[in-house]
From TrEMBL:
<keyword id="KW-1133">Transmembrane helix</keyword>
<dbReference type="InterPro" id="IPR019251">
    <property type="entry name" value="DUF2231_TM"/>
</dbReference>
<feature type="transmembrane region" description="Helical">
    <location>
        <begin position="82"/>
        <end position="102"/>
    </location>
</feature>
<feature type="transmembrane region" description="Helical">
    <location>
        <begin position="108"/>
        <end position="133"/>
    </location>
</feature>
<keyword id="KW-0472">Membrane</keyword>
<feature type="domain" description="DUF2231">
    <location>
        <begin position="14"/>
        <end position="132"/>
    </location>
</feature>
<protein>
    <submittedName>
        <fullName>Membrane protein</fullName>
    </submittedName>
</protein>
<dbReference type="InterPro" id="IPR016923">
    <property type="entry name" value="UCP029509"/>
</dbReference>
<feature type="transmembrane region" description="Helical">
    <location>
        <begin position="50"/>
        <end position="70"/>
    </location>
</feature>
<keyword id="KW-0812">Transmembrane</keyword>
<dbReference type="Pfam" id="PF09990">
    <property type="entry name" value="DUF2231"/>
</dbReference>
Length: 142
């Protein structure tokens, strides 16, 4: 029986970094649901809800991005997908910021651009979270 040793173990996310990363996803998804509801009902308050959820998600995603960039430059080795993770977070934050600017316009003028951007940002946030958490080890020795 051969035993393999992983000489460069993957680093897990710091718990606060994981909290920031995981906090952005439900807020972006909530904004997407708010935009879908606004698209179907044209009740202006749903647009306001989506706008506030995007603002909160940008705070979480911004601090997670800052932490990821610092970890990228501090890392002794670049094993795994840290650069892809940072680029996904950056794309999420930039498109989320553009989505926030779109939501700042008149409620009647934001559709369908706001809905399309909300879908893209929610997918990017989920992908960034998936890549960020994929560095965790699962199970025993393999």
């Amino acid at each position: 029986m051969a035993v393999t040793v992983d000489r460069m173990p993957r680093r897990a996310l710091h718990p606060f970094h994981a909290f920031l990363l995981a906090g952005a996803v439900p807020l972006f998804l909530g904004a997407l649901l708010g935009d879908i509801t606004y698209f179907r009902s044209y009740q202006i308050q749903w647009s306001n809800f989506a706008s506030w959820l995007i603002a909160g998600a940008l705070v979480f995603a911004g601090f997670a991005l800052l932490w990821a960039v610092i970890d990228l430059f501090r890392a002794d080795h670049h094993r795994g997908r840290p650069l892809i993770y940072v680029l996904l977070l950056l794309a999420t934050w930039v498109l989320g910021f553009l989505n926030a600017l779109i939501h700042a316009r008149d409620a009647w003028g934001i559709m369908p651009t706001a809905l399309v951007l909300s879908v893209i940002v929610a997918v990017l946030a989920c992908a960034a979270t998936w890549v960020g958490f994929s560095n965790f080890r699962v199970g025993g020795a393999a």
